[in-house]
Each structure stands twice: as C-alpha cells, then as structure tokens.
Known about the structure:
By secondary structure, the chain is of the alpha+beta class. It has one domain: Ribosomal Protein L9, domain 1 (3-Layer(aba) Sandwich). The chain is 16% helix and 26% strand. The chain has helices at residues 4-12, 68-71, and strands at residues 31-35, 41-44, 51-54, 60-63, 77-80. A three-stranded antiparallel β-sheet has the order 4-1-5, with no helix packed on it.
Amino acid sequence: MACCGSQRAAMRGGGANVGGGTGTPWIPRAMDFEYTGSGELQITGPSTGTIYTFRGPGARVRVDEHDVASLVSNPNLRRVQ
C-alpha cells in the first residue's frame, strides 16, 4: 500500500491521479458557450467581473478561463467544442 508521501511525490512530478479516478482532471480554459434559452441572457463572471451577454437562442460568447467553471453549471449554456 502506498503512503501519502509517494502520492505527494507523484503530484510534484506532474503525473499523479490521486483519488483513484481513471480520467484526466478537467482544467478550465477560455472557451465558447452557446445559449440555449429564450430571450436574452446577461451573466456576470464571478472571477473576472466580466458581463457576458447572450443576445438570443444560439448566441455564442467566448468566456474567460477564470469564469468557465461557474458558467458550466448554468442549464441554459452549453460548451462549444
């Protein structure tokens, strides 16, 4: 059984997947979002204070990497790959 010291060493080496998950951790970066609701949506990014305005259904807006994690939880926004 590995001790926590070996896990810390693996993390310093950049190759750790501590916690037993099999996927790669999700790291937010700037990305586009598409609005799927109706009408217009204005939402303020909690980290940057930027006001993102989606003018109507299908509108796409580039979101700063620092606000991505918060906007992902909005049910009317979908990440665009």
